[in-house]
Fold:
Amino acid sequence: MNTDNLSPPSFTEARNRLQKARSAGMHPDYWYAVEYDSKVRREQVVEVKFWHNSIALYRDNNEQLHAIENRCAHRQLKLSLGKVDRDNLVCAYHGWTYDNQGKLVHIPHELFDKPMPTCQLKTYPVQVRYGLIWIFPGDRSQSQIRKIPDLLELEGENPWACVPLDFTWKAHHSMIIDNVSDFTHAHLHRKYRPFVDAKLTRCEEAGDRVFVSYETLIGGGKISGLFVDRQQVNTNAIDLCYEYPYQWSNTGDKIKHWCFILPIDERTSRVFFLFYFNAIKIPFTSILFPQKLMTYVLKIANPILIKPLLSQDGFAVEAEQEGYETHFNKQVVELNPAVHLFQKLTIHKWEEHLGIKNSKYLLRKTGISKIRNSHEKLSD
Structure:
């Protein structure tokens, strides 16, 4: 079969696990990191996207954040092209103005003897944690039930050092999940040696989580290894988890990280990495950096060590995306059983979301049928 002119199948058209995983969205009933808190200034509006949906994120003149469906009900211009007026959002085209609840509150031009239109745009719950802005794109009622992960080490009086990093990669979110928890790709990182000779010791699913553990030397690079305090930290093993829709790792309870993926569309994802450390050693000594200095150390280390390392992962997943789009009908040989479980969980959660949507549709359709039947009986 010649597939040169064909595109990868949609989720409903997919024939196998890989195709389903590579076309699945992410369940919207979770909190997703969308931007840095410091990047949205007072009276500024920016566009963020969650799975094809454009959202206008803005900070009002009282420093409060709001998120609204990014379109004007008049001519469908993006409201992110407009401006913030006190706690309202004003469309750039005709000046139609929406309050922070998404309600149209002002039209500055003639109404042609017509009443003020009733327009209501969707709004989204917003929170700030760990220096990141989070949006809940799904069912608002679920936003109080499902929480942003508690990274207790980053809160309190003596938080661990953490300087977040982010990337926008031209790759499906499932490829990134496969990448960050699959330690068989040490060859890709042979220059930096963040892990070597990994042996899988645990691989199991528990609800909406997949737990993975490896025996491997962590932080074995020529430069990065100088900062690792192997006397206090067991760097011969690592635990990881795909805690849907997030991913985390733990090395000796002293080195941890979380990965928060924002799925933009089928081939674009923004990824926020939070690496945090309880101890960093001054090279060639047994002395640890004071906690107050560790943040500055990370600000230096991120562009020199961590960002180039993660950029290799970006190169790999973008190349994988291109390869999948070309050869989506070809057989793929996957040896790591953890990857099978990652993909299985991704598919399950998207099917769960679609099932919820279908249930609501059927409920609505059933309700309409009942109303119609009752009208017919009355007319008889």
In short: The chain has four helices and 19 strands. The chain has two domains: 32-142, 159-339.
